Amino acid sequence: MNSKDIRKEFLHFFETKGHLIVDSAPIVLKDDPTLMFNNSGMAQFKEFFLGNGTPKNNRIADTQKCLRVSGKHNDLDDVGKDTYHHTMFEMLGNWSFGDYFKKEAIAWAWELLTEKYGISKDQIYVTVFEGDKGDGTTLDEEALELWKQHIAEDRILYGNKKDNFWEMGDIGPCGPCSEIHVDIRPEADRLAVDGKALVNMDHPQVIEIWNLVFMQYQRKADGSLESLPARHIDTGMGFERLAMVLQGKSSNYDTDVFQPTILKLEEISGVKYGAAEKTDIAIRVIVDHLRAVAFAIADGQLPSNTGAGYVIRRILRRAISYGYRFLDLNEPFIYKLYPILKAEMGDFFPELVKQETIVTGVIREEEASFLRTIEQGLNRLNQIIQQLGDSKVVPGDVVFELYDTFGFPADLSRIVAEDHGFTIDEAGFEAEMAKQKERSKKATALVTDDWVILDAAGNETSIAYDTKTADVKITRYRKVKNNKGEFFQLVFNQTPFYAESGGQVGDVGTISTLNETIEIVDTKKENNLVIHFVETLPENVNATFSAKVNTEKRNEITKNHTATHLMHEALREVLGTHVEQKGSYVGDDYLRFDFSHFAKMTEAEIALVEQKVNDKIAEALPLIEKRDCEISEALADGAMALFGEKYGDKVRVIRFGSSIELCGGTHVKNTADIRLFRILSESSTAAGIRRIEAITSNKAIESYKEADKNYNDVLAALKTKNDAVKAVQHLLDENAALKKQVESFVAQQASAEKATWKAAIKEINGINFLAIKTNLDVGAAKQNAIDLTKEIENAFIVVGTNDAVKPSITISIAKNLVDKKGLNAGNIVKEIAKHINGGGGGQAFLATAGGKDVNGLDAALKQAEDFVK
Ligand code: ATP
Ligand code: MG
C-alpha cells in the first residue's frame, strides 16, 4: 500500500466510526507559551482537554504535522542515526472528547491494524500501565481486560510510568496509555528470539507504532493526581513507521515517503545510499531535516536568531554540515530537493505548493550564508591551531566559541583538529555546553502554580470588540514565577482587554475598586483563555472591579492595525499578488509588516503605496465587520487568509472598501480616524522577505512637523528663504571651485619648494644627496622627490613632512644608483623611520613610511646621510 493510501485509509476508517476529519494544525504554535512547535496530535486540542473550549465534534481524527526538536520531546540526536525517529513526522490520531473511552479506542485500533491494514496478529504486542506507587495508581485492569478480548494474553506486557503514563506537561490532563508495538524482524529471527524481550528496548525492528492515551487524571502543581470529570481518548500513530510496516521495509527511509528525495540526493552528491554507514547517516539526516525546515517555513516560521526561528536555523545548518562533511557538498543543494518533496506531499499539504518560491529562496540563501560561515570558521580554526604549537589540544572554550558565536559545528572542529594531528578538549567543550544550557534554562524557567478557582461556572468571555470598560469579576487566578520575578495571572468572567494575537499587542489598563487600583501590565491568550498580568493581587479577589482599558494606547494600536490592512492591499496592487503577509507587529508606537517580495522596493513604489493608503484614509471608508461568517463564504468574497494560521469554520471578516481580511484584531470605525499614514523604512529580513515600518495619526503628523522644522533650520543656516536645493547646489559649486584653487596653489608652492630643494642638493661620493624637511603634504612631497630624481642625475632624495600628527618620510633614489651601489630605499626608510616611531616600505628606488613622532624627524634625516657616506 503506498503511503498516500495508508493515510487515506486511516482517515476513512475513523470517518466511518463517526469522526469528523480535520486539517493538520500549523506546525508552529502561536498561543501556547509552553510549546514552540506542535509535537503531538493532541496539541491543537489542548484547550478542549483543559475545558477552555468546545470541539466541533466529540469525535475527531486527522494527521498532524509534528516536530520533536525541543523541550520535553526532543529526538534530534537520534535522527539519522536510527531509522525510525524523525524531526518532522506525521501523527495519525483519533480523539474522543468526553465521548467513547477505552473499549472503542482499543477495539478500533485492533480492527484497523489487523483487518484493514492486514498486519499479522502474531507480530503485534501491546502494553498496559502497571500502576505507580508514588502516584497511588494501580494496574490498568480495564485496559487489560479489553485487550484480552482481542489478543493472546502472553502478548500483553506491563509497562511502567515512564513508558505507559502520558503527561502533557508538568501539570495538566494525563493518564495511562497502551502502546502497540510491531515486530517486523524476519521470521527466522522471530523464532530465535522472542519479540517480547525486545519491546521498548530500542530495537529498530521491534517498534512502537501507536500510543492510545486514556486521559482520566489532572496533574496538579503539587504533583498529586485528581480524577477528571470527563474522560478523553487521545491516540497517536507514527505515519512513517506505519508505512514501513505495511510496505515490508526495515527502515522508514526505505518507504515511498523518503525514497524519492533520497534518489535525488544520490544524483546530486554522486553517493549511493547503502554504500557506507557514515554517508547513510548523512543522507538520512538531510532528507529528514529537509521536511522539518520546509514545513516550518511554509507555515510561516522563517529561520532567525531567536526562539522557534533559531531552532529551524539550527536544523537546517545540521543538514548542511552533514552534507559538507560526508557528501562533499560545498554548494547549496538542499533547496534542490524541495521540488521532489513538493511533488510527493503537495497534494495533501497544499501549503508546500503555494509557498514554494519562499521556501526554496530562504533555504538557498541560508545554505549559501552558512557555507560562508563554515569557510570562515575553518580559516579561524586553522589560525588558532598554528598558534597553539606543541600543545596538540584545541581548548574546549575555543570550540565552544566557534560553535556558539559563528554556528561552526563542534564535529567539524574535531575533524579539522584531527587533520592537523590535534584533538579537541572534549570535556572542556561539554562543560561550556552544560553552562550554556544552564544559562538558557534559568532564563526561561517558569514555575506556574495551580489555578485558584473562584467561580467554576464563570464563562470567561471576551467583550474586547464592543467595549473598553466593564465591571468584571475574577473567576480564577494563579501565581507565576520566572527569571524576572513573581507575578499573577487573572482571568475575568468577561473582559474588555484584547489579548495579544495576530501581531496586535495585548492591552494594558487598570482594574479598580473604591479602595485600590491595580495595573494590568499585559494581556495574553493561552490555550484560548484570556490572561491578565498583574504584579500584585487585589486585596479582595472576590470584589467586583471596574476594568478600564488604556484607551489612548488602544486607539493608536487600532489605527495601526487598520493601516496595516490598507497597506497590505496597496502592496498587492503596486507589487503584485505574490505579496503575502509573513509577520507583523501592531503596537501603539508603530506598525511593522513583513511580506514576500523578491526585490528592494523603489522610491516610487514606496511613495505609491503610501499614497494609496492615504487615499483610502481620505475616502473615509466605514468598517464593515462580520463575526461568525462561514469561512467558505468569506474566502469566496475574496478575504485574505494567512498560511500558518489556524481558522475555525466561523471567522471574523474585516472590510474597508475593497480590503477584506480574516482578522481577529481591533479596528477603527472609519478609515478617516487614521488621519495620516507614513512609511518610515523598507528593508530586507530574509531571502525574499521585505519589511516595512510605518506610523499613523499623531505620530505621522509629528514626524512631518519635525521634518518641516529641520528644513526650516536648514533654510536659516543657508540664509535663504525658499529654495534650499538651489542654495545647496550653489554651495557645492563654490566648494568645487575652491578645491580647484587650493590644488593649484599647492602645486605652485610645491614647484617653488622644488627649486629651493634643488639648490640645497650636495654631492657626496658621487651621489647628489638631499635630506630636507617640508610643510607640503605627503603626496606633494613625494611627487617633488620623484620629479627631482628624474631631473638630476645620481639623485638620492629624502623628504620628511613636518606634520605634527602624521609625519612621513619619502626616499627616492635614481635607478642606476640602486643597481650600482646596491642602495635600497625600502630598507633605508624602514631603518630611519624608527626615529619617528613609524614604519613603511616600498621598492628599492622609491619608498615611504608614516610615523607618529614628528620630534624624531631631524634625527631620521640625519641618519639618512650615513647611507651615502
Ligand atoms: P518512541 O519511544 O519511539 O520515541 P514515543 O513514546 O516518544 O515513541 P509517542 O509520544 O507516544 O511516542 O507518540 C506516538 C507515536 O508517534 C509513536 O508511537 C510513534 O509511532 C510516533 N513517533 C513518536 N516520535 C516519533 C519520531 N520522532 N519520529 C517518527 N515517529 C514518531
Ligand atoms: Mg520518543
TrEMBL record:
Coiled-coil residue windows: 721-748
EC number: 6.1.1.7
A GO CC term attached to the entry: cytoplasm
Annotated positions binding Zn(2+): H561, H565, C663, H667
Keywords noted in UniProt: Aminoacyl-tRNA synthetase, ATP-binding, Coiled coil, Cytoplasm, Ligase, Metal-binding, Nucleotide-binding, Protein biosynthesis, RNA-binding, tRNA-binding, Zinc
Source domain of life: Bacteria
Domain Alanyl-transfer RNA synthetases family profile: 1-706
Family under the similarity heading: Belongs to the class-II aminoacyl-tRNA synthetase family.
The protein's role, per its UniProt record: Catalyzes the attachment of alanine to tRNA(Ala) in a two-step reaction: alanine is first activated by ATP to form Ala-AMP and then transferred to the acceptor end of tRNA(Ala). Also edits incorrectly charged Ser-tRNA(Ala) and Gly-tRNA(Ala) via its editing domain.
Description of its domains: Consists of three domains; the N-terminal catalytic domain, the editing domain and the C-terminal C-Ala domain. The editing domain removes incorrectly charged amino acids, while the C-Ala domain, along with tRNA(Ala), serves as a bridge to cooperatively bring together the editing and aminoacylation centers thus stimulating deacylation of misacylated tRNAs.
The protein's name in its UniProt record: Alanine--tRNA ligase
Lineage, highest ranks first: Bacteria, Pseudomonadati, Bacteroidota, Flavobacteriia, Flavobacteriales
Gene name in the database record: alaS
